[in-house]
Write a structure and sequence with these properties.
This protein is mainly α. It has 18 helices and no strands. The radius of gyration is 30 Å and the shape is elongated.
Length: 467
């Protein structure tokens, strides 16, 4: 990341040149290459050229949009105020660069204002230092949902850039420096000061980068709650996207990993009904976050596959895996948003199920776990007999659910105190277990439909419906 920061500083210098002739050439050539061939390598090259063209176009639009600011009366007054308060200018630049989501775009705007005489050399350098802090903040904020091992990198980079930017701010405000050596104009000096700052930061920070990362990782791990370790591995390899069979195998591997996570969640949540544990509840919520991240990455991975290169069977498999991933994510949401809420409500109110009611819930849960294992096997085997077995198991579960509801209402009629107190909790739990079972049974339908074993509708034909 330190090297990338220096690279982005050099990009500012490159983009400050007159590249107006490159813009239409990049867009036209990239579009022509992309449309002229089906070869993946060439199409990627076309996308890169289009991206460069759009980048240049967006920077031109930023420049045009800032013209009213440069020509109006407000900007000179605002810049005049900031020139007298370097600390405020520094913080304002950091926040603005973060809001831009691009330190490069913000610094180019500062350079343009300096070229118009609105921003002085001294103020421009202060704004550039603030933009360097804001640029580090972008990655740190975008990585909030990642694992500590991943998040420690942008946070350590932010710490190093922040310390370097504050130190440089103190230096330029307290010590007169020979800035004329950096260029003939204010705009050139600002850009070269930006490059020099990142170069010096790279040299000074490299020896301590490892320690900074280790310290940040230690702090993050100390704050992480207890987790249910599944030994997860990452199977989505971009190198095999050109080979659909291998890419789909990788996705299958990841979906199986989600299945294993769901099985752990289903087993844990019923234990929490009997014995609540704050650390395990938080760990269970963390597993749902893991499922959400995996689902997101699988969708992006499948989106990067060229649909035109897929055979019909491969396209069918891709759709099956995506549908399975969506259903599994919904199962995880039900566990964490519904069942865990029931756990919390049960223990907050000091409720306990009747002996018969608790046995019925445990029996339904056991049937659900058994059906879940059939569904998870089906993700890999795609076997029609297994799919039929899962659908029949869904029908048996529905019968058991109806019987459990009937027995519960019978206990209510008999006036059982525990049944009355826990009635809402009992019925809500049954409903959620039934909904999870229905989602898992839905994994069978694409297989049965592909085998021609699924009817288009469960309704009776009109000619046999009663009048």
């Amino acid at each position: 990341m330190l090297g990338a920061d220096l690279g982005s500083a050099l990009v500012v210098r490159l983009l400050s040149l007159d590249l107006s002739a490159v813009l239409p050439l990049a867009l036209a050539a990239g579009t022509a290459i992309f449309l002229a061939t089906e070869r993946r390598g060439w199409r990627r090259g076309g996308r890169i050229l289009v991206g460069i063209g759009l980048l240049l176009l967006s920077l031109r639009m930023i420049g045009e949009a800032s013209e009213p600011l440069r020509e109006g009366n407000f900007m000179p007054v605002a810049m005049g105020f900031l020139a007298t308060d370097p600390a405020t200018a520094f913080l304002m630049a950091a926040i603005t660069a973060w809001l831009f989501h691009s330190s490069v775009a913000f610094i180019l705007l500062v350079v343009a204002l300096a070229g118009s005489g609105i921003v002085s050399e001294d103020l421009g350098i202060v704004l550039v230092l603030g933009a360097n802090l804001g640029g580090g903040l972008i990655a740190a904020m975008l990585s909030r949902g990642t694992q500590p091992e991943a998040r420690a990198v942008p946070l350590a980079n932010l710490a190093l850039r922040g310390i370097g930017a504050v130190a440089a701010l103190a230096l330029v405000t307290l010590v007169p420096l020979p800035m004329e050596a950096l260029g003939a104009s204010d705009a050139a000096r600002i850009m070269h000061a930006h490059i020099l700052f990142n170069l010096v930061l790279l040299v000074l920070a490299l020896p301590v980068a490892g320690r900074a990362h280790g310290l940040m990782l230690t702090l993050l791990l100390a704050r992480r709650p207890a987790t249910l370790d599944l030994g997860a591995v990452w199977a989505l390899d971009d190198c095999v996207l050109d080979t659909p069979a291998l890419a789909l195998a990788n996705v299958t591997h990841e979906v199986v990993g989600i299945c294993e996570t769901i099985e752990t969640m289903l087993g844990t949540v019923m234990e929490l009904y009997g014995e609540p544990d704050r650390a395990r509840i938080e760990a269970l919520r963390g597993l749902d976050d893991r499922i959400d991240r995996r689902h997101h990455e699988i969708k992006l991975y499948l989106a990067r596959m060229e649909v035109t290169d897929l055979a019909p069977a491969e396209l069918q498999r891709m759709q099956e895996l995506l549908a399975a991933c969506i259903k599994l994510e919904q199962v995880g949401d039900i566990v964490t948003r519904n069942l865990l809420d029931h756990v919390q409500r049960k223990h907050d109110r000091g409720l306990s199920f009747s002996v018969d009611g608790w046995d019925e819930l445990r029996d339904l849960h056991a049937a659900l776990v058994a059906n879940a294992r059939i569904a998870f096997n089906l993700v890999v085997t795609r076997d029609s007999e297994t799919a039929l077995q899962l659908v029949r198991a869904k029908d048996r579960f529905r019968d058991n659910e109806r019987r459990a509801n009937a027995l519960h209402f019978q206990r209510l009629r008999e006036g059982g105190a525990r049944s009355i107190d826990t009635s809402s909790l009992h019925l809500d739990t049954i409903r959620d277990l039934k909904q999870i079972n229905a989602l898992l049974a839905g994994l069978a339908y694409p297989v049965l439909e592909h085998q021609g074993l699924l009817l288009g509708s469960r309704l009776r034909p009109p000619e046999v419906c009663p009048a």
